[in-house]
Design brief:
With 142 residues, the protein is an all-alpha fold. The protein has a single domain, classed as Cytochrome Bc1 Complex, Chain D, domain 2. 44% of the residues lie in helices and 0% in strands. The radius of gyration is 15 Å and the shape is globular.
Amino acid sequence: MLKLKTALVAFGAAIVLAATAGYGPAAQAGGDWPTDEECKTVAKDADTIVKGWCAAINRKGGNCLACHQATISPWPEGFPPGGNIAPPLVAMAARFPDRAALRAQVWDATVVNPTTSMPPFGRHKLVSEEDIDNIVDWLLSI
């Protein structure tokens, strides 16, 4: 039964991913998302969505793309693809119409799913409050 449930979840995620491929927010004026290295200088003056992207890709911070695949356009050239351990980050505003619910998920996903592999970023202070808010802004933009 667990294998069937896992297969159905993966199939549903693939359908959502395929349906939304190529659609995403325009990043910066140049149309490119900053790399992790560029985030060190760009993010200081960026809007909350770009700051959220920078927090999400930071390997010492959120590192969201280690587990999740995100549908953003354009995908940064030379940037490694997202992971496939966790659900894809697509249609987030439709999946989480309540911002507080999405923030709570990022803060501590174990509240909803005690067996999740997602770290409780807020509860364990792995990511700052400001970065969590910025990540949520970024997620709601994709």
